[in-house]
Amino acid sequence: MSIVNQPVNPQKARRGLNRIWHATLISLDGFRAGWGETAFRQEVLLAIVMVPAAFWVGRSWVEVALLVSLVVLVMIVELLNTGIEAAINRVGPEWHALSKNAKDLGSAAVLMSILLCSGVWIAALWHRFAG
């Protein structure tokens, strides 16, 4: 295959289990990159406490699933925000209104996910102990 015909992303040419294997390795690289962010590490540490606590706080499998899902959602949004920040930083270090807007929107998404998670957890704790 000549250089002209080679795909920019070799993952696009992979098929079957080979593609799944490489996709898994790429995802693990993403987790390692996320681990470099202080906020993601803090959220993982909270998840280590909150996921087992969800089995104690939740009264049904649906409640447990909701509580765990919201904790995982916060981490997902944090990883997406980190990806946005990395892409913006790659473009250049100089200040630009659109770059600021993209980073601010990512940060707002993280805040909203944390508020959602906190609100549902507070309601679940209230229902469990005061109800």
Summary of the model, kept short:
With 131 residues, this protein is an all-alpha fold. The protein has 4 helices and no strands.
Verbal overview:
The protein has 131 residues and is mainly α. It contains 4 helices and no strands. The protein has helices spanning 16-35, 38-57, 61-91, 97-129. It is flat and about 65 Å long.
The mean pLDDT is: 92
Structural class: mainly alpha
Q: Give me the count of strands.
A: 0
Distance between the termini: 68 Å
* Major sheet characteristics: none
Give unreliable regions as ranges. none
Helix share of residues?
A: over 70%
Strand content: under 5%
N-to-C order of helices and strands? HHHH
Q: What's the layout of helices and strands?
A:
Blueprint: H1 16-35, H2 38-57, H3 61-91, H4 97-129
Features of this protein?
131 residues; single chain; 79% helix; flat
